[in-house]
């Protein structure tokens, strides 16, 4: 694996790790606010974090905090965000490979 490919992979994984941590914290915060009738984190924000790479942390937050697991419309949009994220990543990989980047 070339150095450039390694750097791109490490950068991507770092983004996923950071956004996953942010998503996990937001789910915990939103669950706490839901119990106390406080100002909530907008669903759009949670979906955007998932779309940009934080979906693993969002999924863990849903499971750990038992939050956003019953609302079907939320779950559908969440999984669409996950799929769109993966399609975008696959598309970028294909584009880079077509432009001569080494295969992994």
Description:
- The chain is mainly alpha-helical and 104 residues long.
- The chain has one domain (3-98).
- It is 80% helix and 0% strand.
- The chain has helices at residues 3-35, 43-65, 72-98.
Topology of helices and strands:
Elements: H1 3-35, H2 43-65, H3 72-98
Helix pairs in contact: 1-2, 2-3
**What would the average pLDDT be, to the nearest integer?**
93
Specify the structural class: mainly alpha
Helix content: over 70%
* Global geometry: elongated
Order of helices and strands: HHH
Number of domains: 1
**What ranges have pLDDT less than 50 throughout 5 or more consecutive residues?**
none
* Tally of DSSP β-strands: 0
* Biggest β-sheet description: none
Helical element count? 3
- Terminal-residue CA separation: 6 Å
Radius of gyration from the CA trace?
A: 16 Å
User: What fraction of the residues are assigned to beta strands by DSSP?
Assistant: under 5%
């Amino acid at each position: 694996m070339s150095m450039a490919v390694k750097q791109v992979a490490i950068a991507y994984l770092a983004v996923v790790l950071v956004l996953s941590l942010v998503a996990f914290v937001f789910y915990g915060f939103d669950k706490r606010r839901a119990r106390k009738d406080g100002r909530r984190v907008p669903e759009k924000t949670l979906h955007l974090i998932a779309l940009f790479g934080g979906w693993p942390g969002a999924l863990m937050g849903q499971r750990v905090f038992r939050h956003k697991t019953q609302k079907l419309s939320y779950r559908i949009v969440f999984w669409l965000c996950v799929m769109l994220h993966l399609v975008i990543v696959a598309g970028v990989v294909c584009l880079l490979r077509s432009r001569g980047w080494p295969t992994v």
